[in-house]
Amino acid sequence: MREFCTNLQNIGGVIEYLKKIAMDKHMIFLLQGDLASGKTSLVQAYVASFYPSELVTSPTFSLMHQYRDIYHYDLYNRSLEELLALGFLEWLENEGTHFVEWGDGRAMALLRENGYNTCVVTLSKHRDERIYRIFDE
């Protein structure tokens, strides 16, 4: 486990660490944290490090947004059964890096059972900063 405590202006170390984990792999990052903990902001910073002109928004209502080879999902208030019916596992077959907001233990178990490379990133607020805990076993 690696831990960073930083603000958005200095998030570069977190982004570089995530890039290192995802390098040459089909990687799925499960982002866990309370509302407004910075999950979408983390994805925005990651995408901006590759594609600065991309406008990254939360996929809360559409379930998934794609930024070339980076995929961003929001599972908030969706059951695992609903996700499977919508083709969630098929979307994850796309080569690239996937960020899944609200990826819980059930989602993690399903992904690991199906052989996906996963990494949990927990986010929590700490004063004017965020604590990023990255479990990249």
How would you sum up this structure, described in words?
The chain is of the alpha/beta class and 137 residues long. 31% of the residues lie in helices and 31% in strands. The chain has a seven-stranded mixed β-sheet with strand order 1-7-6-2-5-4-3, with helices on both faces. Helix 1 crosses helix 2. It is globular.
Which structural category fits the helices and strands?
alpha/beta
H-E order: EHEHEEHHEHEE
The first-to-last residue Cα distance is: 7 Å
Strand count: 7
Strand content: 25-35%
How is the main sheet built?
A: 7 strands, mixed
Compute the gyration radius: what is it? Answer: 14 Å
User: What overall geometry do the principal axes of the alpha carbons give?
Assistant: globular
> How many H/I helices?
5
Kindly report the spatial arrangement of strands forming the biggest sheet. Answer: 1-7-6-2-5-4-3
Helix content: 25-40%
Search tags:
single chain; 137 residues; seven-stranded mixed beta sheet; 31% helix
In short:
It is built from 5 helices and 7 strands.
Topology:
Elements: E1 2-6, H1 12-22, E2 27-32, H2 39-50, E3 64-67, E4 70-74, H3 80-86, H4 88-91, E5 97-101, H5 105-113, E6 117-126, E7 129-135
Parallel strand pairs: 2-5, 2-6, 4-5
Antiparallel strand pairs: 1-7, 3-4, 6-7
Helix pairs in contact: 1-2
